[in-house]
Design goal:
By secondary structure, the protein is α/β, with parallel strands linked by helices. About 40% of the residues lie in helices and about 15% in strands. The strands form four sheets. A seven-stranded mixed sheet has the order 6-5-4-7-10-15-16, sandwiched between helices. A four-stranded mixed sheet has the order 11-8-9-14, covered by helices on one side. Strands 1-2-3 form a three-stranded antiparallel sheet. A hairpin with a 4-residue loop joins strand 1 and strand 2. The two termini are about 35 Å apart. The structure holds 5-S-methyl-1-O-phosphono-5-thio-D-ribulose (MRU).
């Protein structure tokens, strides 16, 4: 971390052993500046998530886990019981920093479960060492999972195709390698040539600022388009496939992802363009009803300004949902580390849940 290396290898978030703090690439200043920010306490982690210095579902999942580890390190409680009581408000505050991506709650809950089951009854230096080791292992696992799902998903792509992606589901949205962009990395690694169209993803411009930057940095042939040019690009036959990431996939295959994804999936169906979603198991919500999932609404200012300059009357109302939901009938396949899921998704997701609960490995598709 700390330099602009290839995003095949770069990590977005890392634990710093020397100072027991978290280092992250500040995604609010890219692509103009490559800056590392450091979080030394829970409030700084929550602020980094809310202000999107770190963003993307798997990346905030690991940030949440590491945030809770900071809370454990700061604790002076003498027993595990007291420690668990002490860190609970921090766990709740971290989880509510952004409501839609389930990975955030997943990261915090996994860490809390680890504390409950693996830490010694008396809180000690050993507890602190163990928790740090655990959150670092979650970060490593994220990279390995992304490589695995990406290598499988890459088989769906043919030589010479043009692929549209939305927002940033890249290395920057994960600890490393990426999900949707990980798949594209693996397509390239398999020796197939490809062109990528990146939609800019107004209002925060993750497509323009992050995806275009990340892919151009790694030598991809990437073309930026405005969100409003997606239909025209498909109508002209410029897009062969779509691949996006996800913030939450419910038990029946509803996909929550960056606002605009639903429009893309609808257009893809009309133009018979395969529409893929690439996401790890930590993005699956095996229990919730999709209608009850909270979609984050962000500040109207994100829509009413560009680069700090007002582009709309200051008094006008603005509606700014950060995510939307794509129904399963518009999704051709879901790519995860257990395989490629085709429709109908519900029975396969049910099998995934069983395997996830039992800790089993092997394909489900
Ligand atoms: O608001 P963001 O930038 O956190 O939204 C990110 C997305 O919607 C990504 O597509 C999603 O988290 C998948 S990241 C692998």
């Amino acid at each position: 971390m700390g330099d602009k290396r290839s995003f095949y290898e770069q990590r977005t978030i890392e634990w710093d052993d020397k100072s027991n703090s978290i280092m992250m690439i500040d995604q609010t200043v890219l692509p103009n500046e490559f800056r590392i920010v450091r979080c030394s306490n829970v409030s700084e982690v929550i602020d980094a998530i809310k202000t999107m210095k770190i963003r993307g579902a798997p990346a905030i999942g690991v940030a949440g886990a590491m945030g809770l580890a900071l809370s454990v390190i700061a604790s002076t409680s003498s027993t595990k019981k007291k420690l668990l009581q002490e860190i609970e408000p921090d766990a709740i505050a971290i989880k509510s920093a952004r409501p839609t991506a389930i990975n955030l709650a997943w990261g915090v809950d996994k860490t809390a479960e680890f504390i409950q089951s693996e830490l010694p009854e008396m809180n000690s230096n050993e507890s602190k060492e163990k928790i740090v080791k655990f959150v670092k292992s979650l970060a490593d696992a994220d990279v390995n999972t992304n490589r695995k799902l990406s290598d499988q998903g890459a088989k769906l792509f043919r030589n010479g195709e043009t692929v549209l992606t939305h927002c940033n589901a890249g290395s920057l949205a994960t600890v490393g390698y990426g999900t949707a962009l990980g798949v594209l990395r693996s397509v390239a690694k398999q020796g197939k040539t490809l062109k990528v169209f990146a939609a800019e993803a107004r209002p925060v411009l993750q497509g323009a600022r992050l995806t275009a930057y990340e892919l151009a940095n790694d030598g991809f042939d990437v073309t930026l388009i405005s969100d409003t040019a997606i239909g025209a690009s498909m109508q002209k036959g410029l897009i062969d496939r779509v691949v996006v990431g996800a913030d939450r996939i419910t038990k029946d295959g509803h996909v929550f992802n960056k606002v605009g994804t639903y429009q893309i999936a609808t257009l893809a169906k009309r133009h018979r363009v395969p529409f893929y979603v690439a996401a790890p198991l930590s993005t699956f919500d095996f229990d919730a009803d999709w209608k009850k999932v909270k979609i984050e609404e962000r500040s109207p200012e994100e829509i009413k300004t560009i680069g700090g300059q007002h582009t709309a009357p200051e008094s006008v109302k603005a509606f700014n949902p950060a995510f939307d939901v794509t129904p399963p009938e518009l999704v051709t396949a879901i790519i995860c580390e257990k395989g490629i899921l085709a429709r109908p998704f519900a029975p396969k997701i049910k099998r995934l849940k069983r395997k996830a609960l039992k800790g089993l490995s092997g394909p489900v598709a």
